[in-house]
Write a structure and sequence with these properties.
Strands 1-2-5-4-13 form a five-stranded antiparallel β-sheet. Strands 3-14-15-12-11 form a five-stranded antiparallel β-sheet. Strands 6-7-8-9-10 form a five-stranded mixed β-sheet, with helices on one face. Helix 10 links the parallel strand 16 and strand 17. Helix 6 crosses helix 7, helix 10 runs parallel beside helix 11 and helix 11 packs antiparallel against helix 13. It folds into three domains: about 110 residues, Sulfite Reductase Hemoprotein, domain 2, CATH 3.90.480; about 130 residues, 2-Layer Sandwich (Sulfite Reductase Hemoprotein, domain 1), CATH 3.30.413.10; about 140 residues, Sulfite Reductase Hemoprotein, domain 1. It is an alpha+beta fold. It is built from 13 helices and 20 strands.
Length: about 500
């Protein structure tokens, strides 16, 4: 960002010190404070004396400069709990009112901006986590994702949208960023262009797949489409009812065809004005790899001899000492970078075989099975919006599955949201859980709604179907019984669930 933008943000941080101070002293209520703090990327936690700060980074790119900042924040005692998010950001939790603005300002020096991290703003721009290194990708959309992020930050003060706007770029191989159901989803094509879907999304009021608005978007023109989407949302979005104030509800008010026409008319108008073309920088020359390594978490890159190492801390909770450990490991490694994936996984990329071997040793404390790669939001113990503690629930499930000896593959990665807000994207999981309550003898009990059959695979995106409500106390028994049933037939979850749905549903019915 340019110096004027940064200077203005520093002034906003100074003003925010008064705002967060007033809340801390009890002079602002939660609702009023949330309306002010969200646009700065911070929210109060369930304990009002503790706060969260969301650090946006386009495409989840955790460069060495950004990693050094995180390590320093931990060493200075400013960050205890670190949460990887499904929008490829990093959240710092359990902060005091004084620490939040300090971290906002310190983060700027490492090209991390919290501005617009919450509230009615364009949120962190997402991109396939292995863009640029993944074999088979159509092309790497990272330069356009970063251009979009810079542009959105540059205009965020001049626009007033009904609600947030989420934009994602896929390399055509991996669509964990969910281009099929984002507010805007750019999917790379083999011919070097993007297809674009608009007005999709998840959430408490019902999910929706995006409308195919353009089959071929030239990458250099993506900003015209983004500005046109903002224009369309501001003109036709619902400013009166927040429950209906997301782009997906324009499909209802305008109809898919009417929405597409309004959007493309705005694209044409913005293109006529000009000035938003993007010319990506030249790609850096890749470093040379040597040797080879075979390991389940070492992923060969498209660059010969180079690897990406996969590391998934359980529940997406990064151990506080890990940023410093990883920085010391990678700071002198040519081309090294970390990517935050939408499933709360970290990828350490551009490593030789020897470097990958050392990275594997440093990340051995993470998930070991497909099930342990499950996704969970921060949960009700921390989040003031939460209903169920998704983190403790996932931890209990992992412990139960391990104790039962369920083999790897017999259960899929699951997605656990602590409330209807869909922060884990539970509707898109093979198994998804949404926190709530269930009446037992007319008494509400902690429970989760269970969804089956969601997918985010390219070309196969679909939402899971509701399978019932399960008491929280019964979840460990349910998951272990399902996993052991698949294992008894020697099949993976996908094979067993597809071949034996009656057996699967009978098990679920015992608990639902």
């Amino acid at each position: 960002m340019d110096s004027q933008w940064k200077s203005t943000f520093r002034e906003e941080i100074e003003d925010f010190k008064d705002t967060i101070g007033a809340f801390d002293r009890g002079e602002l209520d939660r609702k009023a404070y949330k309306g002010m703090s969200g646009g700065m990327g911070s929210y109060a936690q369930r304990d009002p004396a503790r706060h969260m700060l969301r650090l946006r980074m386009a495409g989840g790119r955790l460069t060495m400069e950004r990693l050094k900042f995180l390590a320093g924040a931990v060493e200075r005692g400013q960050a205890g709990r670190i949460k990887l998010t499904t929008c490829q950001t990093i959240q710092l939790h359990d902060l005091s009112a004084d620490q939040v603005p300090q971290l906002m300002e310190q983060a700027m020096d490492s090209a991390i901006y919290s501005k617009g991290g919450g509230g009615d703003n364009p949120r962190n721009v997402m991109c396939s986590p292995l863009a640029g290194v993944q074999p088979g990708e159509c092309f790497a959309p990272t330069p356009w994702a970063e251009a979009a992020a810079d542009y959105l930050l540059s205009i965020c003060r001049e626009i007033h949208m009904p609600r947030k706007l989420k934009i994602a770029f896929s390399n055509g191989v991996d669509d964990s960023v969910h281009t099929a159901f984002r507010d805007m989803g750019f999917l790379a094509r083999p011919d070097g262009a993007f297809s674009l879907r608009i007005a999709g999304g998840l959430g408490a009021a019902g999910p929706a797949m995006g409308v195919l608005a353009a089959e071929r978007v030239e990458p250099r023109q993506v900003l015209y489409y983004i500005r046109a989407m903002i224009d369309t949302f501001c003109a036709h979005g619902n400013y009166e009812n927040r429950a209906k104030a997301r782009t997906r509800f324009m499909q209802e008010t305008l109809g898919p065809d009417g929405l597409k026409k309004a959007f493309l008319d705005n694209v044409a108008a913005r293109m006529a004005e000009g000035g938003l073309d993007v010319e990506p920088p030249a790609a850096p020359a890749p470093k040379s790899g040597d040797g080879w390594i075979v390991h389940p978490r070492a992923i060969p890159q498209k660059q010969p001899g180079l690897y990406a190492v996969k590391y998934h801390p359980i529940g997406g909770l990064l151990p506080p000492d890990k940023p410093g450990q990883l920085y010391r490991l990678l700071q002198n490694v040519e081309g090294a970078e970390i990517r935050v994936a939408p499933d709360e996984t970290l990828y350490l990329i551009n490593l030789t075989a020897a470097e990958a071997d050392r990275a594997l040793a440093a990340t051995g404390d993470g998930a070991c099975t497909e099930f342990e790669h499950s996704v969970a939001c921060i949960g009700a113990a921390v989040c003031q919006q939460g209903v169920r503690d998704s983190q403790s629930t996932l931890r209990a499930l992992v412990d139960a599955v391990r104790a039962a000896g369920v083999p790897d593959g017999a259960l899929p990665r699951i997605c656990v949201s602590g409330c209807p807000s869909s922060c884990s994207a539970h509707q898109a999981g093979a198994i998804g859980f949404q926190g709530g309550v269930k009446l037992v003898d007319q008494t509400p009990q902690p429970a989760f709604r269970m969804y089956l059959g969601g997918s985010d695979r390219p070309g196969e995106a679909r939402f899971g179907q509701l399978a019932g409500a399960i008491l929280e106390a019964d979840l460990p028994a349910l998951l272990t019984e399902l996993g052991l049933a698949a294992a008894a037939r020697g099949e993976s979850w996908a094979q067993w669930s597809a071949a034996h749905p009656e057996e699967r549903d009978a098990i679920i019915a015992k608990y639902a």
